[in-house]
C-alpha cells in the first residue's frame, strides 16, 4: 500500500467516527491554540519594543528622574530615591544642551496631563496633552500626515499651537482639514499646525492617535511647571553610533557635575538606553515565555495520551480487519504504517485546527489590544510538533496491531 492509499484509509477511519475523533482532538486543539497564541503575543510585544527603539533610534538615550530598573525594586527603595533624586528642570535641560558635545540633539518632554478638549459642540474628555521641545519630532522620527510640527520660535514665545493625533483630528474635524483649525484645551484656544500619521492600538489604547502635543513652554504656562504626576525627561541623540556610549557617559558626567555629586556618590537620576531596554525585556519576559509555553504544552501531552488510548481502542475494534488484511498478504510493516499514519493524520488535523483558531484569536487581539505577530515559523513548528506527538502516540498501538496473529485476529468478533 502506497502513502496516498494509506492516508486515504486513515482519513476514512477518522471520518467514520467523527464525534469520537473530534473529542480525541480537543486536547491537541486547545494545546496548539494556546501555544501559538502565546508565541504570537510575545512576538508582537517584542516587535513593538523593537519598533519603538527603532523609531527613537539605536543611538538615542533618555534621562529620567529615577533609574527605573533600580529605584522601583520595592517601596523602601522608591521612597529613598524620591528623597534623593530631585526633579529634572528646564534649567537642567538648557545646561546640558549647552555643554554636551557628543550629543547631536537633546530634546525634552513632559508626561501628559489629561484635559478636556472641545471644538464647537464636540467635547473629548481625558485627552493626554504632552509638552515637548520642537526637536523631538526629529529625534523620535515622528511621521506627519498633514501640516507640520511646531517651531523653536513658537516654543520660545509659548505660542498656543498644537500637533494632534489622528483620532483627535477625525473626531473634531470629521468633514474638513484639521490643520489651521482651532480647538480649546481647558477652555484656552489652540491652533492646529499638524496631524500625526495614524499609529494604531497598543495594549488596548491608541496613546499617540488620541493625544495632543504642544510646545513645552506653552505647556508650562498652561498647566504649571512639571511635578510628580507631570514629570520632565530628556531624550538625547548621539552624533554617531560609534560615539553613543561616550555620549551617554558625557551626559552622565555633566548632570553629576551640575548636581555636585562626589565620585563615591551614586547617580541621583537614571539614563535609559536601547541596550538597557532590550536587556530588561529579556530578563523579565524570558522566564515568563518559558512558563507560558510550558503550561499549555501539558495539554499537548494530554492530547497525545488521549490519541494513544483511542488508537488502542481502534486496534481492538479492528482486530478482524487486521486479520483479513494479513490473510490476503499484508505485511507487518503495512499494518504498522497504516495505524501510524492514522495517528499522525489525526494529530496533524488537531494541530491545523489549533493553528486556525490561534490565527483568529490573534486577529481579535490585534484589533482590540495590540498588534500580534504570527510567524510562519511558529505555525510550521506547531504543526510539526503536533505531528511528532502523533508519531509518539501512535507507534505503540501500531506496533501492537502489526504483531497480532492473523489466525487469532480472524476469530475476533
Task: Supply the key terms.
6-stranded mixed barrel; 57% helix; alpha+beta; 413 residues; 2 domains; 16% strand; ABC-type antimicrobial peptide transport system, permease component
Count of strand segments: 10
**For the residues shown, what is the average pLDDT?**
81
- Stretches where pLDDT falls below 50 for ≥5 residues? none
* SS content category: alpha+beta
Proportion in helices: 55-70%
How would you spell out the order of helices and strands? HHEHHEEHEHEHEEEHEHEHHHHH
Strand numbers in spatial order across the main sheet = 2-3-8-5-7-6
* End-to-end Cα distance: 26 Å
Number of helices: 14
In short:
This protein has 413 residues and is an alpha+beta fold. It contains 14 helices and 10 strands. This is ABC-type antimicrobial peptide transport system, permease component.
Could you please describe the fold and organization of this structure?
Keywords: Cell membrane, Membrane, Transmembrane, Transmembrane helix. Residues 21-253 form the MacB-like periplasmic core domain. Belongs to the ABC-4 integral membrane protein family. Residues 294-406 form the ABC3 transporter permease C-terminal domain. 57% of the residues lie in helices and 16% in strands. The protein is an alpha+beta fold and 413 residues long. The protein has 2 domains: 3-52 and 285-411, no CATH class; 86-268, no CATH class. A 6-stranded mixed barrel has the order 2-3-8-5-7-6, surrounded by 4 helices. Helix 2 packs antiparallel against helix 10. The mean pLDDT is 81.
Amino acid at each position: 500500500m502506497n502513502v496516498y492509499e494509506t492516508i486515504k484509509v486513515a482519513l476514512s477511519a477518522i471520518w467514520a467516527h467523527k464525534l469520537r475523533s473530534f473529542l480525541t482532538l480537543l486536547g491537541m486543539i486547545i494545546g496548539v491554540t494556546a501555544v501559538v497564541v502565546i508565541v504570537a503575543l510575545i512576538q508582537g510585544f517584542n516587535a513593538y519594543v523593537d519598533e519603538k527603539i527603532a523609531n527613537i533610534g539605536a543611538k538615542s538615550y533618555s534621562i529620567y528622574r529615577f533609574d527605573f530598573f533600580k529605584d522601583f525594586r520595592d517601596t523602601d527603595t522608591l521612597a529613598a530615591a524620591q528623597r534623593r533624586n530631585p526633579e529634572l528642570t528646564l534649567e537642567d535641560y538648557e545646561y546640558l544642551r549647552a555643554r554636551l558635545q557628543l550629543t547631536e540633539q537633546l530634546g525634552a518632554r513632559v508626561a501628559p496631563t489629561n484635559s478636556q478638549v472641545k471644538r464647537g459642540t464636540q467635547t473629548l474628555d481625558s485627552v493626554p496633552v504632552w509638552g515637548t521641545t520642537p526637536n523631538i519630532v526629529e529625534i523620535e522620527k515622528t511621521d506627519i500626515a498633514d501640516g507640520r510640527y511646531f517651531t523653536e520660535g513658537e516654543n520660545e514665545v509659548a505660542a498656543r499651537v498644537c500637533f494632534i493625533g489622528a483620532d483627535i483630528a477625525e473626531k473634531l474635524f470629521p468633514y474638513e482639514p484639521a490643520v489651521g483649525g482651532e480647538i480649546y484645551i481647558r477652555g484656552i484656544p489652540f491652533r492646529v499646525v499638524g496631524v500625526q500619521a495614524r499609529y494604531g492600538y497598543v495594549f488596548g489604547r491608541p496613546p499617540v492617535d488620541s493625544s495632543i502635543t504642544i510646545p513645552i513652554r506653552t505647556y508650562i504656562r498652561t498647566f504649571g511647571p512639571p511635578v510628580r504626576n507631570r514629570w520632565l525627561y530628556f531624550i538625547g541623540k548621539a552624533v554617531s553610533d560609534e560615539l553613543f556610549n561616550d555620549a551617554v557617559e558625557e551626559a552622565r558626567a555633566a548632570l553629576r557635575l551640575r548636581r555636585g555629586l562626589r565620585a563615591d556618590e551614586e547617580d541621583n537620576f537614571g539614563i535609559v538606553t536601547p541596550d538597557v531596554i532590550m536587556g530588561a525585556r529579556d530578563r523579565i519576559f524570558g522566564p515568563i515565555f518559558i512558563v507560558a509555553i510550558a503550561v499549555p504544552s501539558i495539554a499537548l501531552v494530554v492530547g497525545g495520551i488521549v490519541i494513544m488510548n483511542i488508537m488502542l481502542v481502534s486496534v481492538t475494534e479492528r482486530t478482524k480487519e487486521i486479520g483479513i488484511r494479513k490473510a490476503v498478504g499484508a505485511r507487518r510493516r503495512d499494518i504498522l504504517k497504516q495505524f501510524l499514519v492514522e495517528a499522525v493524520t489525526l494529530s496533524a488535523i488537531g494541530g491545523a485546527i489549533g493553528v486556525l483558531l490561534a490565527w483568529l484569536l490573534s486577529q481579535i487581539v490585534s484589533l482590540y489590544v495590540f498588534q500580534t505577530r504570527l510567524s510562519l515559523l511558529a505555525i510550521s513548528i506547531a504543526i510539526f510538533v503536533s505531528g511528532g506527538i502523533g508519531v509518539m502516540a501512535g507507534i505503540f498501538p501500531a506496533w501492537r496491531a502489526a504483531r497480532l496473529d492473523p489466525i487469532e485476529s480472524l476469530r475476533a468478533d
